[in-house]
TrEMBL record, chains A, B:
Keyword annotations from UniProtKB, A to Z: DNA-binding, Transcription, Transcription regulation
Protein name as catalogued: DNA-binding transcriptional regulator, MarR family
Pfam families for this protein: MarR (PF01047)
Stored Gene3D superfamilies: Winged helix-like DNA-binding domain superfamily/Winged helix DNA-binding domain (1.10.10.10)
Domain of life where this protein originates: Bacteria
GO MF, one annotated term: DNA binding
Length: 140, 140
DNA sequence: TACAATTATTTACCTGGGTAAATAAAAAAA
DNA sequence: TTTTTTTATTTACCCAGGTAAATAATTGTA
């Protein structure tokens, strides 16, 4: 029987470790993992309002405001006004579109490498377990 | 075959979710999860130098300096000088010792509840998978 | 239409992770 | 012994998560 303290401690530790490595990989491209998550999202779904972004990424609105502001400063995204004047629609810049594939490759490679210590079955188990940890208990 | 982007995205999301809930539970006691981690550590091992703490928790030294400073302000720990004048030995205050069991109960209950959606087998798998994600690949 | 409620975003302020560089004390070496 | 190197901690400054409250625009309603 595993001590739950140990389990949660290990969970936090490993996530910090992975995030740190992830950021190190991305630093070569001038990005951080949260910025990449937004880039990935915009490439996948096209221009989005900030609300759509934070709802998708499951973070709070102020977090996105801040990160998008930084990304805009570094010429990764631009914001234009939506049909609704409250909305700000975010889209990738030409620079971001141009560099996307290269960064994607680096990320993909890092992820594969990290996962390489797991069997295919363990990867499936991992995904399934993580889903069950969520608010919807894995049915959503 | 699972998309690794999805997997890592899910990992981050779930950890944020769990951390948030954890903090909410602890807020009733005036603590945050990182502070609890330190309290747990000190209760388990007794007074420790800051270096011993950050090495055990696997974070960087400045992180511990900051959190310990906050905990000292809130009367959870005190720092005294070690035999080596560079060292600062941290120990729990009377308040912390008095409240420890109560907080521990709350934490334990939350952790059990969170894990309750997993089978015993899945908990074991989860632990084992997390170990393999680390720098030592699970052998350490 | 005028007023109230909702929605999108922002601001201010917390915690907590990181790195780089500065101190101060101890240990090692010349 | 004096000097150099290492070690423990701190400071300054990032990024990223959170909450509470403020704005501004849109919807809903009396």
């Amino acid at each position: 029987m595993i001590d739950t303290h140990e389990l949660f401690h290990l969970l936090h530790q490993r996530v910090r470790f992975v995030t740190k490595e992830f950021n190190q990989q991305l630093s070569a491209h001038g990005l951080y993992h949260s910025q990449w998550a937004i880039m990935y999202c915009l490439e996948r779904f096209g221009p989005m309002t900030q609300t759509a972004i934070w709802k998708y990424l499951n973070v709070e609105a102020p977090t996105i405001t801040r990160t998008i502001t930084r990304m805009e400063k570094n010429d990764w995204v631009i914001r234009r006004q939506g049909g609704d004047k409250r909305e700000r629609v975010v889209e990738l810049t030409e620079k971001a579109k141009k560099k996307y594939e290269q960064v994607n490759q680096a990320v993909y490679q890092y992820e594969q490498e990290t996962i390489s210590r797991l069997t295919r079955e363990e990867v499936d188990q991992f995904y399934s377990i993580l889903q069950k940890l969520g608010p919807e208990g894995g049915e959503g």
